[in-house]
Amino acid sequence: MPVITIDLGTMANKEKKCELVQALTEAASTVTQIPAEKFIVFINEMERDNIGVGGKLLSDIIK
Amino acid sequence: MPVITIDLGTMANKEKKCELVQALTEAASTVTQIPAEKFIVFINEMERDNIGVGGKLLSDIIK
Amino acid sequence: MPVITIDLGTMANKEKKCELVQALTEAASTVTQIPAEKFIVFINEMERDNIGVGGKLLSDIIK
Amino acid sequence: MPVITIDLGTMANKEKKCELVQALTEAASTVTQIPAEKFIVFINEMERDNIGVGGKLLSDIIK
Amino acid sequence: MPVITIDLGTMANKEKKCELVQALTEAASTVTQIPAEKFIVFINEMERDNIGVGGKLLSDIIK
Amino acid sequence: MPVITIDLGTMANKEKKCELVQALTEAASTVTQIPAEKFIVFINEMERDNIGVGGKLLSDIIK
Question: What would the pLDDT profile of B15-31 be if each residue is shown by its tens digit?
Answer without folding.
Answer: 999 999 999 999 999 99
